[in-house]
Structure formats: C-alpha cells, structure tokens
C-alpha cells in the first residue's frame, strides 16, 4: 500500500508534509511547508514540476510515473504524484519498493537488479530507524552446490534450490522477503526485528527446516548450509554496509567447518577501519552523536527504575556502549572536556523530565579510568558541568570495581559534588568491605560473564552468592547485566538481585520513548 508523504500545490510548493517524511529529510515540517520544490529537491525539481504541469493539463486522477527521490545520501524513495479533481493540489506518495514472496534476482552483478535491491533496503532501513526497530539480513549458502550440479545435473540442482526456498518460505512471516541472489545463495530480509537474539532465533529455525534430506530422483540428499546475519541500523547504516556485513558473517560461518549460523561481529570483522579513520569520524562531530537509554528494570516492580546512558555515533556501527573506549580519541587539549560538556548538556532536559517520576532512580553514566585520570577532571566536573543539584542526585556515575583501589579519592570527590556512584564488573575482584561501607555506592553491578557462567559453574554461583550476601548486609542494591531469559531472571531474583538489564527487557530507547514508557507504566 502506498504511503502518503505530502501535499503539493501550484506553482510547486509544499503545502503540507507528514512527520515521517520531514524526519527523513532531516528537517522540521515548518522548514518544508510553504517552501518551493526546487529549494527542497534541487536535482529532482524539474522532473517533479514537469509531472505537475502534465497532470494539470491532462486532469490526471491517477498516479504518475515513478520518481526516484533521494531523501538522504543513503536512502531513496520511489514516489508518484496524483492530481486532485480541482487540479491545483497534488498528492505525493511513496510506493513500497520491496516485494513479498520469493523471486529471483539473478546474479548480484546484475546492473539493474542490484540497485533495485539496495534502494529497497535503504527504504526499509529508514522506516526501521523511525520505528526504533531493526531489519535483519540473513544470507544462506547451500554448501557443495557445485557438486550437486556436477553429480545430478543442472535440473536436479535447481529442484534442490526450489525445495530449499519453499521450506524457508514456510518459516517466514508475511512481511519477510526471500531473494535468490546466486545459484547457491539466498538472501532473507526480516522486518520488525527487536534485537539480535530475535534474528538469531529466526535464522536457527530456518536452518532447522533444512536439516531434513531433500529427495531428488529417488535419492536423498542431505544439505549442509552456512548462514550469516547482520542487522540495521544496529550494525549498518545503509544497504551497502548491511550487505557487506552479512557477507562477512557468512564467510565466518563457512570457515567454521562450513556450516552453522553466525551473527556479524564488527569488533572482529571491521579491521579495515584504522584508529585514524575512527578518530576522524567521531572526534570533531559531537553534533553527530545521539543519546539512547538501555532500560534497567527493578525486579520488585518490573518497571524501569534506572536507565543506562549510551552515546551513539552515526556512521560507526556498534560503538558507544562503553565510554572508556572513547578516551584515546579525545587526547589532546580540550577534547575530553568538550565531550563531557556535550554529554551532560544533552542529558539535562530529558533528565529533568524523568526526575518527575518518583520511582525513577536515575541515569547511569560509565566513566573509565582513562577519563578519570585526565588532568583537572574533578575541577572540570565542579566548575564546567552546570547540572542543577536537584538533578545531580539522579546521575549515577559508574566505575569498574577493580579501579576503586586506585581511584578511591576521586570517587569520594564525585560524591561530594552531589553525584551517586555505581560499581560495575563485580566478579573476581570485590572491593574491601570497609571501603564499600565508606563509599556507600548506590548500586553494585555483577559482571555479565559471571551472570552467564553461574548457570553451569558451581564455583561462580557461590561467588555470586557471596557478593549478594555482602550487598544485602550493607543494604546496597545489586544489579545484573546480560540477562537473556526468564529462567535466568528467576534465578537471579532468588539471589537477591534488585535490577536487571539485557535484551530480555527490551531494546535501546530514545529519551522520548523512555519517558513514554515510564508514563505508560504509571511511574
């Protein structure tokens, strides 16, 4: 179904646009409405005006020929115009440029089909970004396909691929799409994906559907498949990056004994991005950062009571979850100061709104030792961060527990400024009891590996019990990261964990979505 984007009027002015279209153009509605088409789309203005003129002359009440309209450098829309009966207004609609079902795209080197696929992906990625969702690409390779062709013949090999496609189609949802991109490769586009684990579950289910033998000319052929997965905008910003990422994931799966499912891992596979490249991408462009919040739920209330703050970098997939990674790129005079000023400045408005909810405990900001050790850190926090005292108590600054031995004085100084302290990565190291009593941290957080290992490792489970006992004796809330299942959540609840974080509890939220969710939960 076509989606209405805008109303145009003679002589080529935008009368009204919807919010989604304005967002894709990186403008507000006020900046578009009343403006000429030539001001908004200078390269496509002639084509659009020509369509409008022809429609006025012919009294067209039907959609025009499609216009490819680039709305960003990475995203293009297939748009059409329709003249209203009065002849002085035109509707601009975006047509779905993806196609449900299974159809062949031929070889990826096809000059006509590849741009079509990329344009479709760019459109779907832009919609996923607006809806705060992800799309996933699943690339599947049928191993030993050349052997099938040589042994059974071309026709039998095609029958095998047809059977594979039919099985996969059974496992897809109505809004997923299946493409054949090479003789032995299939590409599956999964829409409305909440997190990586959800995409993995779908890919594993598809792989299981291919576990049964295919019957060809009274012979049973057992297939071996390798599957790669990548997500956008989580791991890629546009179609080109996403297709490259899923290809890398597939190569990793093929190297792992030629079969299995692999999720794209940018920390291992984006080695081509040098430190200098990375620094150029993010160092001067604080405006290109956005803040998201990872929900941290209180066990007793099952509601968001703390939120983990995450700086997000446009154009750099999967980075920003750990601020200590940023320190090397802010070396030199004023770099880290500019960063922290930006960070707290961006935080003030949403924090002021969130603080109105009585049960909301605060926002966690992770600061690594690299930033804490920089010259003048405490003086800077005291003199340059102008966060009202009423809001500072809602800021929980998080340090690695193992660093408290070297930075005890800094932690006390931070508390003296009105902030609260959280200690993270409690596992093999636990600060001395006396130090915990004096510091009185607002939150102790278990290391994610400890949480994962406690299920199967008795020694690790006893270690967690010891930490839980200490937290209970000192009346300090205990939090856990990496909680991926209801069963694990139940076990941690019995261990006395008060807060939990992980994909089980939901995906990254914007400040607006976080506030909406708090209101919906009557907090």
TrEMBL record:
One of its GO terms (molecular function) is diguanylate cyclase activity. Residues 133-266 form the GGDEF domain. Pfam families: EAL, GGDEF. Its EC number is 2.7.7.65. Residues 271-522 form the EAL domain. InterPro entries: Cyclic-di-GMP_PDE-like, EAL_dom, EAL_sf, GGDEF_dom, Nucleotide_cyclase, PAS, PAS-like_dom_sf, Rev_trsase/Diguanyl_cyclase. Residues 12-59 form the PAS domain. It comes from the Bacteria. Keywords: Nucleotidyltransferase, Transferase. The keyword Nucleotidyltransferase applies. This is Diguanylate cyclase.
């Amino acid at each position: 179904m076509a989606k209405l984007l805008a109303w145009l009027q003679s002589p080529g002015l935008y009368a009204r646009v919807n919010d989604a279209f304005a967002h894709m153009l990186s403008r507000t509605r006020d900046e578009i409405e009343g403006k000429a088409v030539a001001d908004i789309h200078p390269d496509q203005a002639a084509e659009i005006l020509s369509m409008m003129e022809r429609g006025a002359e012919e009294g067209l009440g039907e959609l025009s020929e499609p216009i490819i309209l680039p709305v960003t450098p990475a995203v293009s829309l297939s748009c059409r115009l329709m003249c209203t009966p009065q002849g002085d207004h035109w509707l601009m609609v975006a047509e779905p440029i993806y196609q449900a079902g299974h159809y062949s795209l031929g070889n990826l080197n096809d000059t006509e089909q590849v741009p079509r696929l990329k344009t479709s992906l760019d459109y779907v990625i832009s919609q996923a970004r607006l809806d705060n969702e992800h799309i996933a690409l699943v690339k599947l390779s049928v191993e030993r396909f050349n052997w099938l062709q040589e042994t059974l013949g071309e026709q039998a090999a095609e029958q095998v691929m047809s059977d594979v496609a039919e099985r996969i189609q059974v496992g897809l949802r109505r809004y997923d799409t299946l493409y054949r991109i090479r003789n032995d490769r299939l590409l599956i586009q999964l829409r409305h994906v909440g997190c990586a684990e959800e995409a993995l579950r779908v890919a594993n289910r598809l792989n299981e559907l291919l576990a049964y033998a295919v019957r060809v000319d009274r012979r049973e052929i057992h297939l071996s498949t390798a599957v790669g997965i990548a997500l956008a905008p989580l791991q890629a910003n546009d179609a080109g990056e996403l297709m490259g990422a899923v290809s890398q994931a597939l190569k990793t799966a093929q190297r792992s004994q030629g079969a299995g499912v692999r999720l794209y891992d940018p920390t291992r596979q984006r080695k081509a991005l040098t430190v200098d490249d990375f620094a150029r991408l993010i160092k001067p462009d604080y405006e290109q950062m956005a803040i998201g919040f990872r929900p941290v739920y209180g066990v007793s209330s099952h509601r968001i009571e703390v939120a983990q703050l995450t700086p997000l970098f446009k154009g750099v997939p999967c980075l920003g979850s750990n601020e200590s990674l940023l320190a090397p790129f802010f070396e030199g005079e004023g770099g880290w100061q500019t960063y922290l000023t930006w960070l707290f400045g961006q935080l003030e408005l949403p924090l002021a709104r969130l603080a109105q909810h009585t049960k909301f405990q605060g926002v966690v900001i992770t600061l690594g030792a690299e930033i804490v050790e920089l010259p003048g850190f405490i003086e800077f926090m005291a003199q340059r961060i102008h966060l009202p005292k009423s809001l500072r108590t809602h800021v929980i600054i998080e340090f690695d527990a193992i660093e408290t031995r070297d930075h005890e004085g800094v932690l006390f100084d931070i508390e003296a400024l009105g902030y609260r302290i959280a200690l993270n990565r409690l596992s093999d190291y636990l600060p001395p009891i006396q130090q915990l009593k004096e510091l009185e941290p607002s939150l102790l957080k278990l290391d994610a590996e400890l949480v994962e290992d406690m299920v199967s490792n008795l020694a690790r489970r006893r270690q967690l019990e010891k930490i839980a006992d200490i937290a209970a004796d000192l009346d300090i809330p205990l939090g856990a990261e990496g909680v991926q299942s209801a069963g694990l959540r139940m076990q941690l609840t019995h261990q006395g964990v008060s807060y939990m974080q992980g994909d089980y509890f939901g995906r990254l939220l914007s400040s607006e979505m976080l506030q909406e969710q708090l209101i919906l939960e009557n907090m």
